[in-house]
Amino acid sequence: MFTAEQLESVKTRKELVALAKEEGINLKKSLKRAKYEEELKLLQTELALLQEYIEEKQLRVAIIFEGRDAAGKGGSIKRFVEHLNPKISGVVALSKPTDIERGQWYFQRYIEVLPNRGQIKFFDRSWYNRAVVEPVMGFCTEKQYEIFMRQLPNFEHMLYEDGIHVIKFWFDISKEEQQKRFDARLGNPLKEWKFSPVDLKGQELWDKFTEYKELMFTETHTSFSPWIIVETNDKEEARLESLRYVLSRFKYPGKGKTKVDLKTNPNVVYRYFRKNKKFDL
Questions:
Q1: Is the pLDDT of residue 3 over 80?
Q2: What does the pLDDT look like over 112-130, one tens digit per residue?
Q3: CA torsion 118→124→126→128, rounded to 10°?
Q4: Which residues, at least 6 apart from 112, have a Cβ–Cβ distance to it below 8 Å?
Q5: pLDDT interval class at 49 (50, 70, 90)
Q6: Per-residue pLDDT tens for 162-190?
Q7: Can you give the pLDDT at residue 217?
Q8: Inter-residue contact 80 to 185 (CB < 8 Å)
Q9: Is 33 a member of any domain?
Q10: Residue-range definition of the domain harbouring residue 67
Q11: CA-to-CA distance for 141 and 133, rounded, in angstroms?
């Protein structure tokens, strides 16, 4: 990447190309990254305005991030919360249930961490663990799964009726991209902590995950709580487009003051209503 000093030293495009060649820098990639960083900053500024509105109007907002392993959920959440006030925002990433929690109603521990008035919460996985991961990995019984799926639409309708704004994202990538990201994690000591035994089964059980995911969409995509698909192998694009979608859902004072594009790309972000042609959803 170029340093700030290097960029300040060039005056023409020709000089920039020559500098890139001299430093062995991929100019196209560097310019794309610079554009991403600028857009991200502007969208995060808009998100800060939205947070002020949520606090002022005492709204309750829950944004759920689901998707295949290594789909970019955590990285996107990081960009959402990076510059928000931690007193009125937060990340929910529950660990596996304790013995006591296993004896409770399945939704109970999630109810306890729902947003209070004036808060926005980001769920790094959610109650939807029981819709896909748990049955695929054998972490729940068939009866537990069936009861959960019957209760889920009613549970989310109660949240809707009580005024909680729930946005459900499904981040999707191709099978090849998932393997590529797994390999990158295993080859990087700083990222190996992200790799779990469940990840090891991601490729092996790809088709089974797909089967349960499709059942989940069919049973839980509703008018009051729709699924929003974020479909791209580009991590940066997924982050920007999911930010844009959330901002598009609210009318807040000062909206658009940054002049950043707030329209989502319909080929990347869309409601679950059509068969995906790019990846095997």
A1: no
A2: 999 999 999 999 999 999 9
A3: 140
A4: none
A5: very high
A6: 999 999 999 999 999 999 998 888 777 76
A7: 97
A8: no
A9: yes
A10: 4-271
A11: 12
110: domain CATH number is 3.40.50.300
| Contact between residue 227 and residue 272 where contact means Cβ atoms under 8 Å apart | yes
**Cβ within 8 Å of residue 174, ≥6 positions away:** 233, 278, 279, 280
Sheet holding 164-172, edge to edge: 89-92, 119-124, 60-67, 164-172, 227-231, 269-271
What single DSSP character describes residue 75? Answer: H
14: its two tokens? 């020709």
Amino acid at 266: P
Q: List beta partners, residue 228.
A: 169, 271
Whole-structure pTM value: 0.88
46 within 8 A of 259, measured Cβ to Cβ: no
| Residue 38 contacts residue 142 (beta carbons within 8 Å) | no
The rounded distance, in Å, linking the Cα atoms of 111 and 32 is 41
Q: What is the domain count for the chain?
A: 1
Quote the tokens at residue 174.
């191709």
Q: Is 279 within the bounds of a domain?
A: no
Domain membership of residue 197 (yes or no) is: yes
